[in-house]
Amino acid sequence: MTRVGIRAKLRLSNLYTFTCLRPRATEEGAHSFDGPGYSRIVLCNQPLMHNKKPFKYRSNHVSTTKYNVFTFLPKALYEQFHRVANLYFLGAAIVSFSPLSPFTAESMVAPLVFVVGLSMAKEALEDWQRFMQDIKVNNRKVKFHKGEGVFGNRSWKKLRVGDVVKVEKDQFFPADLLLLSSSYEDGICYVETMNLDGETNLKVKRALEVTLPLNEDEAFKNFTGTIKCEDPNPSLYTFIGNFEYSDEVYALDPSQILLRDSKLRNTAFVYGIVIFTGHDSKVMKNATKTPSKRSKIERKMDYIIYVLFSILLMISFISSIGFAVKTKFEMPHWWYLQPKNTDDYYNPKRPVLSGIGHLITALILYGYLIPISLYVSIEVVKVLQATFINKDIHMYDEETGNPAQARTSNLNEELGQVDTILSDKTGTLTCNQMDFLKCSIAGTAYGVRSSEVEIAAAQQMATDLEDQDVERSTDFRQKGKQLEIELESVISKDEMVLKPPIKGFSFQDSCLMEGNWLNEPNADAIMLFFRILAICHTAVPELNEETGSYTYESESPDEGAFLVAAREFGFEFFKRTQSSVFVHERYSASGQATDREFKILNMLEFTSKRKRMTVIVRNEEGQILLLCKGADSVIFDRLSKNGRLYEEDTTRHLNEYAEAGLRTLALAYKKLGESEYSAWNDDFQKAKTSVGADRERMLENVAEMMERDLILIGATAVEDKLQKGVPQCIDKLAQAGLKIWVLTGDKTETAVNIGYACSLLRQGMKQVCITAINSDAREVVKEDILSQITKASQMIKLEKDSHAAFALIVDGKTLAFALDDDMKRHFLFLAVQCASVICCRVSPKQKALVTRLVKEGTGKTTLAIGDGANDVGMIKEADIGVGISGVEGMQAVMASDFSIAQFRFLERLLVVHGHWCYKRIAQMVCYFFYKNIAFGLTLFYFEAFAGFSGQSVYVDWYMLLFNVVLTSLPVISLGAFEQDVSSEICLQFPALYKQGPKNLFFDWYKILGWIGNGLYSSLIVFFLNIFIFYDQAFCAGGQTADMDALGTTMFTCIIWALNCQIAFTMSHFTWIQYLFIWGSIIMWYLFLFVYGMLSPTTSGNVYQLLVEVLAPAPSYWMATLLVTITCNLPYLAHISYQRCFHPLDHHIIQEIKYYKKDVEDQRMWSRERSKAREKTMIGFTARVDAKIRQLKVKLQRKHLSSEIHGPAPSS
Fold first, then answer.
1. Percentage of the chain surpassing pLDDT 90?
2. Which domain holds residue 1037?
3. Residues annotated in a binding site for ATP
4. What is the distance between the alpha carbons of residues 278 and 270, in angstroms, rounded to a whole number?
5. Where are the transmembrane segments (predicted)?
6. Which of 197, 631, 805, 956 pairs with 1032 at a CA distance of 20 to 30 A?
7. Which residues are tagged catalytic?
8. For residue 875, how many other CB atoms are within 10 A of its CB?
9. Is residue 996 part of a domain?
10. What does pLDDT average to over the chain?
């Protein structure tokens, strides 16, 4: 029989107490709702009725693109002309068609079209990729009812409200559906909602009992019904509606609703009615529009351009005023200009008009102050940087074959300025795999394998020992030996034995394996412990016919790990019926393997509120047992006086497990008499079958009566398997100064345990839990939450312990209030004071709202990372969105700015590429403004020197080549290849990353410094050359320099000064930098030589200028050398002073590497690395430090104890 056939025989609804009761029309009746928000009417299986109003609703077509055919041109142009420089050059291009322009219209329009067109083409390409993904989703196929009981395929986009669809195993639901029936006879189906809330645990959905007969295609031939329900809304966890069928009205709730983008699992098929389609579906209601993202550097560039534009206006006004004065008072005396026969532009009688006309000319003439080529150069550099990210072999995942991908190059430098990371949990941090590692039974600890935290602590302590000078005293050497003994106890030698890995089971201890537990003093307690693991659960076994072993479909990975552990210990759960579970026990006192049946009498399942699960069973001897597992705090409160025999030892073990980063549960039991159980069961059945609002409370009270006077048997410790390298990555990111928030749809307990596993939480960290009280009065709830937030903030403020760390834990219900406008600032103020923040049970929209709050409230750069459709909102909302190209589709990747295959690659993406890209772009932009100011202001000086005539000192070809050829390639090499330190050093010293968030290389001090340097260089280039050539002979024949000789000499000095300046700026040289820098200088001389060799009609006054005039003149070469040195002296002086007296971190590392101290003195290098290790409150390092402090305290106590008692006297 097939797996589905076996499972279909189970009426799984009978396993559930609180959540899986099916409402009947006669029990609960219909929901009563009127007014706005409840207007949707769905006419089931009547598609023609939904083709016209008022029942015509939105189609099932979805679009996640930023543009469409009609909006691309206006929206893209709007984006481009948000850039101030582009707006300026648009105005200049328009004016270039007038006679006032000093340049031709073509020379002004062509660069603008090229720059804007290139950027728009890149935007179009990125949006095209989103469009293709939408087409793929919209064209997915699903079976729908065509009529007369016949089903056929139809694309998702053509589905309509009211259609009957048949979804098969492992398919996604195409729209929000009402579940009618399933392959199971009682209408149960399993749903995976990872794309919605991040959870991989399967959810159980159930159909109404009245629709269960609709379980085959022919049954829908004459099916009709009406659904009246709430209007489309983003709430994933609520639904209110009524279903009218067969003259009865049935209440609907979320347990009958199958949401779009969730997946059908372990169920052959389901039938459903389409309720919400397309952008009306709940997952799409949680989606946010694709925003236009610009980096902080780019936004700041606008302000710099405002400054430069102000300078441009100022010098243009000075030039126009000077021109007007010259025109009015001096032009009448310049007879050669024929002042009486001129146009308005040179009319001495209308100087104001002449000045206004000259203002427009000056604005265009001095346009070289505004670097239009900056944007093109940045685009080229960012594309190169993105290529390096894409090709980084260290971010290539061999398992999936997925490399890192920069999906947009606009935000490369933003990677180096991140302050807060907001991360999804499931699929991002975790593999959602639990491994049974240790246990405590009857006060005895079992399990010798170390957790990742213990191993890291031992390794770090060993490193610390090596770094210290242990030869200073004998006393310290003895402490070192004691510490080594401690380390040996942490890492067991048994771990060296290699065994084939068992998924979910990493336990090692010969005392319990292979039936050896029978030889333990408390064998009966151990057997009961294993039976609890094998019985107390809701899982269903599946026989793997290839291997002959059983696998388990469980609602949580913890349950799966417990069942695998029970199997490995010899207690294999292999069968479940409606009323019993069967366990194959390989070991017993008699030595015979037996199959035992345990009849299930009642099951009280786990909820986040109860924090425990209980099953009441009758064994083969007729004894009734209550078996319970749950959080230790909950179990310990319910122990009897006689049941606390192992409490002290178990508590000590639980603390040790928690310190080792393990997830723990306590196990307990009690024996029940027949009369005691019968009396309680009568009360339980009454509560279970009651109707009304008090039903759930009555069930809880009855369960509470039974779950008391328990006997503690032991505790489990499982290790939550994180994705490879996650703890180390989080530790490096924490040392880099980054704050990490976890936003997950998981329940609180799961999220907290993950927090411990990845070291966002640790033992001793004070947890601040903000929860909403149960009240219908919204204002009462808000006041209570605000009071909790205020008290927590005050507690943190009054904390005096320097090692104290706080963690904020909040759920989605509380966030719904905390994100209100009048409370969100208080919530954010508390959150930023905490070392880590974990938000649980949050919807996709709440993820986006929290991200927006952090982004706007702190004003700092945020990065969101996730792997599912439920993360799309926050990925779009954050300054930088990173998608993980995992197994859950490509929605997150398609919405992201960068994609990586594993969370661990985020370390290299930020700490290496982010650090490099930020410094490269910052230095490149600063240098760009420097060179344009140094060049552009010389035009103003000469124009003023020449009577504000509008005359350029440079030949037009010089000006065209300046940005395009002669200075562009060195800048591009700076932006693409510069490295202050190598990638290995970036990873060894993650604190270097802090330079980015602190914005050390692009603050106003740096920017104004470079602008000042440009101003200084322009003054030196112009006035030093004027001083040299104005009154002196230039050639051997006594001739003085003309304008072309002076202009060419000045231009030569600029080329040399600017290229030498960029060489001094660089820290890392390859042959490419040498080629571009010195090649640009050589290119200038080659151009001057070749251009001068052309005929005079082409070269004009530059004809033979280099060969006949400049090259033979020593003053030309001396002036070039003198100006170049003088221009660069201030920068050299500044950088020398800084390195000597106020060095930055990378300066020190550069010197160590240059003098090879890292090779010659390993101890010094290790000491420097240790000093650079930031003292953090989260991460592996913080946890290890806490563990080290704890072990050192133990050692000190042992040492003091040995000194007090002293050695025993010898006889």
1. 29
2. 915-1158
3. 424-426, 559, 606, 629, 663, 744-746, 841, 847, 870-871
4. 20
5. 303-325, 356-376, 928-951, 957-977, 1007-1030, 1045-1064, 1071-1094, 1114-1133
6. 956
7. 424
8. 29
9. yes
10. 82
